[in-house]
Amino acid sequence: MNKFFKTMFLIDFWQIFVTKISLDDFFKSKGAILKKKAIKIKNERFSFFADPFILRVKDKLNLLVEDFSFLSGAKISILEINKKKVYKTKILQNKHFSYPHNYYYNNKNYLFPEMSEESRNSFFQIKNKKKIKIKNYLLGYKVIDPTITKINGLYWLFCSLRDSEHSENKNLYLFYNKNLFDEWTAHKNNPVLKNDNKARPGGNIIKYKNNLFRPSQLNLKNKYGSELIINKILKISKNRYKEKKIFSIKPDKSYQGIHHLSYLNNYMAFDQKKIVYSIFKPLYYLLKSFK
Q1: How high is the pLDDT of residue 287?
Q2: Where are the beta strands (DSSP E) in 70-170?
Q3: Is the model's pLDDT at 166 over the cut of 70?
Q4: What CATH superfamily is the domain 2-289?
Q5: pLDDT at position 118, please?
Q6: What is the C-alpha separation between 246 and 121, in angstroms, rounded?
Q7: What is the pTM of this model?
Q8: Using CA atoms, how far apart are residues 112 and 122, in angstroms rounded to an integer?
Q9: Residue 7 has pLDDT above 90, yes or no
Q10: Crossing angle, helix 280-289 and helix 2-9, to 10 degrees?
Q11: Whole-angstrom distance, CA of residue 56 vs CA of residue 207
Q12: Which position has the higher pLDDT, 88 or 164?
């Protein structure tokens, strides 16, 4: 009976935070300083924000977030943070969207959301808080948490794939191209990490002192997003990939998980979760079944 109630009513309830911090302080403290001065962004009623990515906008702090509602599901919104006020603009809705990774390319912001519940993957340009569809990519794959960076003249797409039970939490795949709009080529050794509990992406790639660091989630059995892992990329090429765990970040004592980190211009955004009982969980899945 206890297991039944947990399955029916227990839910991960996420909370996002933002803080101003230098990369020197972040790495010297092994992430410990991250939560000390963080500002909590208030959730709306019957919903929560998760997966915050900092959006490059001149003189403004904007976050792209998963905007999850128990009534309408997950969509993508932009939060403009202005002192103590938060202004929200919805940009992707009606389907299930999450992990709104954005990449700045040729002076434009591009959004690569996770949309694995559909039979396609698409990316968009963001202009004046509106989205413009560019194209579909990686047809035939159900991409989880797409994360892009440029290394040695190539664009690299880090992701997990929904191809079998639980594999999205344990396998890391790489794809590459020479131009963001070109077709992607699969890495020779995909998945480059296999049966690894820290494989799944957890935010944008961080460049620090001529090195690249990949945030990832620690996903143990029945403990989704329990910790955030910072990995140093040691080798990346068309034939090889190697990384090493540098340190992990645990949630505050009042939270049960942390699984996402975004950095831009001395700001960091992250999320933490509380595991709570909610009568809205079965309602959400009921409404979802009719979509």
Answers
A1: 65
A2: 73-82, 85-92, 98-105, 108-114, 122-127, 130-136, 143-151, 154-161
A3: no
A4: Glycosyl hydrolase domain; family 43 (2.115.10.20)
A5: 80
A6: 32
A7: 0.93
A8: 7
A9: no
A10: 60
A11: 16
A12: 88
